[in-house]
Amino acid sequence: MRIPFTAGALAVALAATPAAAQHEGHSPPEPSAPPAAEPSHQGHAPAAPGAEPDGSHAMTGVLGAYPLSREASGTAWQPDASPHGGVHSAAGEWTLMGHAILHGVYDWQEGPRGGEKGFLSGMVMGMARRPLGPGTLQLRASLSPDPLMGRRGYPLLLAAGETANGVDPLVDRQHPHDLFMELSASYSLRLSERASLFVYGGLPGEPAFGPPPFMHRLSAMDSPEAPISHHWLDSTHIVFGVVTAGLVVGEAKLEASRFNGREPDEQRFDIETGPLDSTALRLSWNPAPSLSLQGSWARVIAPEQLEPDENETRWSASAIHARPLGDKGWWSTTLAWGRRVKSHDELDAFVLESAVGLGRWTLFGRAERVETDELTRVGGHHGPVHDVAKASLGAMRDFPVGGNVKLGIGGLWAFNFVPRALEPSYAGDPNGAMLFLRLKID
After folding, report:
1. Domains of the chain
2. Which end of the chain is more exposed for a tag (fewer CB within 10 A), N or C?
3. pLDDT tens, 96-154?
4. CA distance 273 to 276
5. What angle do CA 158, 163, 168 make, to 5 degrees?
6. Is the pLDDT reported for residue 29 higher than 70?
7. SS3 track for 408-425
8. Overall average pLDDT of the 206-230 stretch
9. How far lies 26's CA from each of 40, 48, 119, 335, 432, in Å?
10. In this predicted model, what pLDDT tens digit does every residue of 290-305 receive, in sequence order?
């Protein structure tokens, strides 16, 4: 396993790093070059590939000749203008990066199908990169404290998916993610100044489908509340077995994945294995530094543990916009659509989310509408399709502790909307709220 190496890389990256390498808003130098002193600030759009404002060489992306800020989780893209954080260091030919976001949350969901719970969520990520032969090798690990919240996850009205005990589905609850969210390696080969080939593999990892998952999207990562559209857009971000090959030409990327389509089971601390029986295709295009577009398709074999005979075809399209605001601010918005095609239903989901960073304050909001057949059960199987919606608004206030460490306090309020047929079981249109503390290292 790669855990000892990755944990060591993360420890080095989060430890006492040269002052010139510990900052936000800029990428480190190329692995082959010594770290160069750079101005310390965050939130600015990245410099053009190959040059920092002070004339030093900029670190490009692992998969292609574009700014590192374009790369999100897995092989997904985001706008080049997204602020790039992380604690950077170097060890020989290795470039190391790490960051952490941990939320301590008190959750309240109104009504007979709601509940209350305190829990810990978030992620800790480490990356190590170096030249290898004619190309570039990257190792990456991402771990989550979610399993500590218990197998039933946390109350979240209108959410559904996975199981707590292998028998009963989780309904009106958000499932915990596995401890190991990503253990991956990628290798890229530059073909020209504008073109490159790459291969990516993970156990677990993220196939080429959908936008970056919600915990990696700038428009969503300050909120600890999972979107109810999660299983339409990005539930495949943890699959236990994936291999992706891709071609980058200029501002476009075409990639294909084979992966294990089964959702993780209720054992959240292990690493599962299974056949690479599912397929995904994704076309991504960044026509401008502020915009990232993608369209994707997937054929997923037996994704649900409780419905092993049911396969799905999934479609996704999204647009992510990001821009700097002033010296330290930023604004990011995501508009996305997802469709799940089953043997008996076509279920659509739409989400619009936006966040604004104003120095120490972050304001965020999300509006969603989904067609779901998982809120009621008939004979142990999915019930009728219901059209439900959710809207939430929240804010976060950060308090710098020192260096790259911040503590934050925030809250959100959610409004849930159900059709008349469901109002008796939900006692109308219930509300929800979360209060949270955050530790952020980047």
Report:
1. 3-441 (2.40.160.10)
2. N
3. 999 999 999 999 999 999 999 999 999 999 999 999 999 999 999 999 999 999 999 99
4. 9
5. 90
6. no
7. EEEEEEEEEECCHHHHHH
8. 95
9. 8, 12, 33, 26, 37
10. 999 999 999 999 998 8
